[in-house]
Amino acid sequence: MKKVLPTKYTADEIVVLEGLEPVRKRPGMYIGSTDSRGLHHLLTEIVDNSVDEAIAGFAKNVFIYLKKDGSVLVADDGRGIPIEKQTKTGISGLELAMTRLHAGAKFDSRAYQASGGLHGIGASAVNALSREMQVAVKRDNKIYLQKYQRGKPTTKVAVISGKTAQQAFPFDFTSGTVTQFWPDPIIFKKTTKFSFRTIKQSIRERAYLVAKLFFHVFDEIADKEEHFYFEGGIKSLIKHLNKNKKPIHPIIYLEKEFNDLEIPVGVEVALQYTESFSETFESFANVINTKDGGTHLTGFRMALVKTIKEYGQKSGLLKADKNGLTGEDLREGLTAVVFVKMPASDIQFESQTKTKLNNSEAQSAVYNAVKEHLTMILEENPSYGRKILEKVLLAARARLAARAAKDAVIRKGALEGSTLPGKLADCQENDPAKSELYIVEGDSAGGSAKQGRDRKFQAILPLGGKILNTERARLDKIVEFEELKSLLVALGMGVGETMDVSKLRYHRVIIMCDADVDGEHIVTLLLTFFYRHLKPLVDQGFLYIAQPPLYKIQKGKESQYLYSEEEKEQKLKNIDGDSVKLQRYKGLGEMNPEQLWQTTMNPANRILKKVTVVNAQNADDVFSRLMGDDVLPRRRFIQTHAKMATLDI
Predict the structure, then answer these.
(1) Please, are residues 251 and 377 in contact by the beta-carbon 8 Å criterion?
(2) Is residue 336 within 8 Å of 281, Cβ to Cβ?
(3) Which of 162, 276, 277, 574 is most buried, by CB atoms within 10 Å?
(4) In 422-491, which ranges are continuous DSSP H helix?
(5) Are residues 461 and 577 in the same domain?
(6) How far apart are CA 491 and CA 422, in angstroms?
(7) CA 649 → CA 481, 586, 635, 644, distances in Å?
(8) Are 279 and 317 within one domain?
(9) Do 93 and 37 lie in a common domain?
(10) Which range (110-124, 365-379, 575-589) has the least confidence?
(11) How far apart are CA 298 and CA 366, in angstroms?
């Protein structure tokens, strides 16, 4: 995308709208939450300011340090925030950017053509939510420093030198910005501790988006470091996403700028079909991961469907009247990344946390770019087109073959008892929000669970042994598998094209398996099924894993259940080991109904683990690697992690 930049980056480029009090009063409106996720969002905002400098063509390196004192330091070798006084307000550009809400050069498209920050809110919001913050800027061979507490300056912007300068700006950049902040424990009551793993994932994502930008991440607490640099940009991301899949053609990549629209849009798209059955999409607006998609993803899908259908009909490989291809058929096995860049002042999201893009310009730009380029690629490389169409037609045939079986599975009404499987012990409650379904391993444990449950709101569905591995199974095979068919009918939300999560009969779906290797395998098989075929159930937070006790410790007439090895070791340290009886539970069937209720099913004291997807890329990779047909990635995983395994001998 063509950069329209000022000849000088000065304080006059900064626009001021309001102060910081709203941020401290309602932090959730600005960073989404005040838990660990919101905490990491602070770092994201500061990092994205540095990334903006790289997008604008001025920064080559970004450094992130997790410091031992609980602070985080972010540095870049960009131009450095302007420090001279702004003509309009008489206040330093640095102080404006750090202490005034909606103050930033990103409102002026002359300064940044594409930006990922909070529309000028980012740095000031982080400052408002930090116990302390300091920013050092190097410009014109001088180093400037200002310090803050909870968003308010405690010093003036001043030139520093000697040891003070070395400590505040410990880099040999010719220019740049160093930001260090300490999150405020008054705001972040649950934790102010950053996760190196979470930061690593976020930084890796940005490194893929901004080709040739070097990220350096250091954890000084654990003495760890990671470095990220990708020459190929989103092409490298496609390669990463498909590393455990079998591609059927080389990566298709396009980049195009649309400067003649009302809002200029830069488009980058990379795509590749694989032999897998699942689809993987990543979409970004500037450097923000739009997890809920939006207009740019809509434009891509429209162009993909139209282009492939037109090419198939033109080449004679598709018969216009007979195939009835759906979007689902055309996306099976597809991995794609859609990345749009727009002026920050014009970009529109559905909410402050920016998970869905709304700009109509992005839809038309992506549609036109993809349709034009993909048409050209297919015409110039007929082997690509043939392989893609073969894949699409195979998906369509499988869908049609599965439809009859699927229709038999999907319930006509949400609560028609006559259609429920015989092995299901349903609950009396009709409100899904108050109902829960236990999926129990084995008939023996299922019997105990049925006797021990609270039948008012707890339903029990026993599973007879291990289920089908659904990572590479089509829907017709899934609905033919009796245990999965019973599960689908019990859930009531359908599957495939007719899935409707609003018809789910239970808002807590709980997997309850033995605490041994076989039980963990069954949990993995069920998680694969839910993630690949009923993902909305996972996304909306309805899936849980029950944690049965590992041990029962008894001293005299008193007994206690222990749920982890650590808990057991701690307990044994505090009592006379010779006078206790320790029982290891390996199966749910070893417990009678009363014990099962007390330990695993009673809401007053049970332990449930909620299944969430923190990183979709990692989740997709793990399921492909561990549950797919390709043996080599699985073998490598086992060899790499063998020493970490807890052996159940």
Answers:
(1) no
(2) yes
(3) 276
(4) 443-452, 475-480, 482-491
(5) no
(6) 14
(7) 32, 11, 21, 15
(8) yes
(9) yes
(10) 110-124
(11) 9
Distance CA 335, CA 243 (A): 11
Distant-in-sequence, close-in-space partners of 163: CB < 8 Å, separation ≥ 6: none
pLDDT digits (tens, 9 = 90+) for 454-511: 999 999 999 887 788 888 777 777 877 888 888 988 999 888 777 899 999 999 999 9
Q: How confident is the model at residue 63 (pLDDT cuts 50, 70, 90)?
A: very high
Query: Could you give the residue numbers annotated as active site?
Result: 441, 514, 516, 518
Residues contacting residue 626 through CB under 8 Å, at least 6 positions apart = 524, 634, 637
Rounded (10°) CA dihedral 498, 502, 503, 505 = 140
pLDDT at 105 over 60: no
Within a domain: residue 137?
A: yes
Q: How many other β-carbons are positioned within 10 Å of the β-carbon of residue 246?
A: 12
CB neighbours of residue 616 within 10 Å? 17
For 481, residues 6+ apart whose C-beta sits below 8 A from its C-beta are 467, 468
Element spanning 470, H or E: none
Q: Which long-range contacts (CB under 8 A, 24 or more apart) does 504-507 make?
A: 504/432, 504/537, 504/542, 505/414, 505/415, 505/432, 505/435, 505/437, 506/432, 506/435, 506/436, 506/437, 506/459, 506/542, 507/432, 507/433, 507/434, 507/435, 507/436, 507/542
Pair (623, 606) in one structural domain: no
Distance CA 283, CA 291 (A): 7
List all residues 6 or more positions away from 2 whose beta carbon is below 8 Å from its beta carbon: 113, 257, 259, 264
Q: Which tens digits make up the pLDDT trace of 518-566?
A: 888 899 889 989 988 899 999 999 999 999 888 888 877 788 888 888 8
Ordered alpha helix ranges (H), 2-87: 21-25, 27-31, 36-55
Q: What angle do CA 622, 639, 217 make, to 5 degrees?
A: 60
Number of domains in the chain: 5
Q: Taking Cα atoms as reference points, which of 262, 285, 288, 283 lies closest to residue 271? A: 283
Q: Last residue of some domain: 406, 435, 452?
A: 406
Query: Which of 165, 196, 228 lies at the terminal end of a domain, its last residue?
Result: 228
pTM score of the predicted model: 0.65
Strand-pairing partners, residue 178, are: 75, 136
Phi, psi (deg, nearest 5) at residue 73: -120, 130
Token pair recorded at residue 405: 């079986």
Claim to verify: residue 63 and residue 23 sit in the same structural domain: yes
In this structure, which amino acid lies at residue 344?
Answer: A
For 363, the domain range is 234-406
In a domain, 179, yes or no: yes
Least confident window among 16-20, 223-227, 280-284, 535-539: 16-20
CA distance 338 to 402: 31
Same domain, 20 and 54: yes
At which residue do the structure tokens 């003649």 appear? 260
User: Is residue 1 situated within a structural domain?
Assistant: no
Tell me 526's DSSP state.
H
Q: What mean pLDDT comes out for the span 430-455?
A: 92
211, with CB counted inside 10 A (0-12, 13-18, 19+), is middle
Question: CA 273, CA 252: separation in Å to the nearest integer?
Answer: 10
Question: Tens digits of per-residue pLDDT, 243-282?
Answer: 888 999 999 999 999 988 888 999 999 999 999 888 899 9
Tell me if 17 sits within 8 A of 103, measured CB to CB: yes
